Protein: Peroxidase
Organism: Hyphomonas johnsonii MHS-2
Amino acid sequence: MTDWLPSLIVKTPAEGYDLAVKLARVAIKVTQPDAEVRDRLRSDYAENASALVAVSQVIATHFATVSAANNFWRGEA
Amino acid sequence: MTDWLPSLIVKTPAEGYDLAVKLARVAIKVTQPDAEVRDRLRSDYAENASALVAVSQVIATHFATVSAANNFWRGEA
Amino acid sequence: MTDWLPSLIVKTPAEGYDLAVKLARVAIKVTQPDAEVRDRLRSDYAENASALVAVSQVIATHFATVSAANNFWRGEA
Amino acid sequence: MTDWLPSLIVKTPAEGYDLAVKLARVAIKVTQPDAEVRDRLRSDYAENASALVAVSQVIATHFATVSAANNFWRGEA
Amino acid sequence: MTDWLPSLIVKTPAEGYDLAVKLARVAIKVTQPDAEVRDRLRSDYAENASALVAVSQVIATHFATVSAANNFWRGEA
Amino acid sequence: MTDWLPSLIVKTPAEGYDLAVKLARVAIKVTQPDAEVRDRLRSDYAENASALVAVSQVIATHFATVSAANNFWRGEA
């Protein structure tokens, strides 16, 4: 798993958001490597309001990191 | 979903807050793409004190990012 | 809702704290626009230790943003 | 409540920690102004492992803010 | 346990992510030193959607730290 | 409790991590001063997956602060 994240630098805020989502998902894989269990749990949290919001929090934290890495794409403004 | 977020730069703190709310909402869509399930869950967390506060936390995290991106609108002071 | 937040710049740390509280409360309004439901939920989380602490966390996150915006009121020291 | 927080600047990291604890406590007061209810809830979360850890999280967030405000007391090292 | 973390500086974002995972795991060891209990708890949170997401949050927080330490590997872009 | 934290500056990342753990523990003491109650709660959260992860989150937040205070020990790389 050494090539999945070549850089934190992306062209646009939307791509940065996608990267944040990816960073959030990888953590789940690392902690629960069994794809079958993950699929079961995924349907758990995707249908549970609290867990869904908690996933959003993880994405928000990664989005802060990716945004800072890209100097907030200030040149795009 | 590549045009929904052209920039993190907005004119005022209030617009920045709106953007933070939007960033929080998109995460829910990404994790639960089924609009019908989302609507059901939305009424869950909108009527549950803990989940509602958790949503506020996600918005607060995104507002920190958007505020930093805009240098806190210091020129507006 | 475009005039409620003209600036993040305030004179003192105490005013900054008040602003953080305000920023936390607005998120609740945005997610649950029905004032009657909000009042009911408010009494829920105001009497529940965990939810009360969670509200404090949201305020803490906004206070970090407001403090950074004001360069921590270092001139006041 | 305008004089309770004249400055974020304090002399030592230990004083900064005390200030972080104070900042965490004020949020509880703001959200639950009734002292009697607060006392009851306080014994709730002080004897509940999860709530106690959640309080620590709020303190940690405020300590980050206070530490940044004081340039991490680098001159003290 | 003084040699386990010689540096926060790593060559690539992917290595930075691995380090964030390691930093998250060490906290569990410090708080629960008994390996047998940890193994039991690990299977608990690896099969529980909410706990799994909470682990992701810890990793996200450490990834922010490691990314800042490495200036976001901007030279790699 | 004024001498327990003379500085945030430590020599290595591993010492910084130890300090983060200490900062997390002090918050528990401040909120629950009764050592006997703390011991009981400690066994609670040390054997509960969710609480254990929550403790990790607090440590992660303090580690971010300590790392920033030490400029991420970049000179050590």
Observations:
- The CA atoms of residues 36 and 65 of chain C lie 30 Å apart.
